[in-house]
Amino acid sequence: MQSNSGRATALVLLGLCSQWQSVLSKPAVLRGKDRIVHDEVLSEKPHDDSLSHDYDHEAFLGAEEARTFDQLSPDESKARLSKLVDKIDGDGDGLVIESELKHWIKQIQKRYVLDDVQRHWKEYDMNKDNHISWEEYRNTTYGFYIENEESEDGFDYHKMMARDERRFKMADRDGDLRMTQEEFSAFLHPEEHSHMIDIVITETIEDIDKNGDGAIDINEYIGDMYSPNDDAEEPDWVRTEREQFHEFRDKNKDGKMDREETRNWILPPDYDHAEIEAKHLVFESDINEDGKLTKQEILDKYDVFVGSQATNYGEALKRHEEF
Ligand SMILES: *[C@@H]1O[C@H](CO)[C@@H](O)[C@H](O)[C@H]1NC(C)=O
Ligand SMILES: [Ca+2]
Ligand SMILES: [Ca+2]
Questions:
Q1: 23 CB-side CA count, 13 A
Q2: Which pTM value belongs to this model?
Q3: Is 178 in contact with 172 (CB distance < 8 Å)?
Q4: Distance 177 CA to ligand 1 centre (A)
Q5: H-type helices in 4-97, by residue range?
Q6: Bridge partners for 46 per DSSP
């Protein structure tokens, strides 16, 4: 993720999987380093249409369903897409418009969060009382480290556990130290909940702020995404990030990002992944450019919306070669 484009462009090009959105059986700090959060993640696949439409497929179908479509013949794939189009066309006028697509993509996102919560629920609710207590969460996530205090890898879990506990207490709105499914959803996906935004900002700053002044200066900002290599010249994307920091991130020009500036960085106020993706899908398939998609326009570009054996031919071939 930190390769060539840096976060500013990554923001536009990629559906980023933030550290708060991925698998929680790993302690928080090990969950990856991408900082920018917007809506729920659409896909972890890079959004580069010259490579494939995998990103679009996952945004449009969800990761699991996208994999199912990849196994279908083109005809089956189109037949199923045709049924989906009827569902997406909310007012049933036979045309799909951007707002209908956006609504659909948001539903796919919501389903992803719900599935994620349910998938982890059983793992943590050990006594099956339909609540996850802090103790259950702690034992499941950190039990191994607690029992092997002097573990060989010297991994210091205390900090992460304290951080998870703090987040847990923030999500646990009624303060009974047990999470309902809704509270657990806020814990797993804090960026979706306004009462969790403060803690998302706090955790981000803590991660990056090395000198402990509670703000992010330019060296900390760059250091978070790039480790200099003595021999190599600083890559262009790092230089771009430096400019971004001074021009856009540090709005009051005091040389560092405070909480408010950090918030604008990781949760840009006017950025909506679902809307951008909906626009993109319309742009790709609206052949007569009237801003509305007929079913035929969508089916003609079925490879943009969904996969099939045909669109994944290259990948299937690769898999085959592995044997
Ligand atoms: C958590 O682990 C401790 C120590 O092994 C144990 O005493 C306690 O009962 C466990 N709690 C839960 C809720 O599983
Ligand atoms: Ca500042
Ligand atoms: Ca059209």
A1: 6
A2: 0.72
A3: yes
A4: 15
A5: 6-13, 54-61, 63-70, 74-88
A6: 14
| Distance from Cα 251 to the centre of ligand 2, integer Å | 6
Residue among 132, 117, 91, 288 at smallest CA distance from 190:
117
Q: Are 244 and 6 in contact (CB under 8 A)?
A: yes
The two three-digit tokens of residue 36, written as one number? 């920018």
Q: Which residue do the tokens 């449009």 mark?
A: 60
Alpha-carbon 252 to chain mean position: 29
135 lines ligand 1 (CB under 6 A): yes
Rounded Cα–Cα distance for residues 70 and 75 (Å) = 12
The phi and psi torsions of 4 (rounded to 5 degrees) equal: -105, -25
User: Which token pair is 236?
Assistant: 């262009």
**Which amino acid makes up residue 94?**
G
Q: Which residues of the chain have pLDDT under 70?
A: 1-51, 150-154, 312-323
Structure confidence at residue 27 (pLDDT): 34
Q: Which residue has the tokens 């806020």?
A: 186
Which protein residue has the closest C-alpha to ligand 1 atom 2? 139
How far from 224 is each of 7, 32, 122, 190, 216, CA to CA, in Å? 11, 12, 34, 21, 10
Break the chain down into helix, strand, coil percent, rounded to 5.
Answer: 55, 5, 40
* Interatomic CA distance for residues 115 and 93, integer angstroms: 31
CA of 102 relative to ligand 3 center, distance in Å: 16
C-beta 250 within 6 A of ligand 1: no
State if residue 125 touches ligand 1 by the CB under 6 angstroms criterion: no
Q: Which tokens belong to 208?
A: 């990056």
pLDDT in tens, 141-199: 999 888 887 666 667 789 999 999 999 999 999 999 999 999 999 999 998 899 999 99
Q: Which residue has the tokens 């703000």?
A: 215
Do 8 and 48 contact (CB within 8 A), yes or no?
no
Domain edges within the chain: 5-20+53-215+258-322
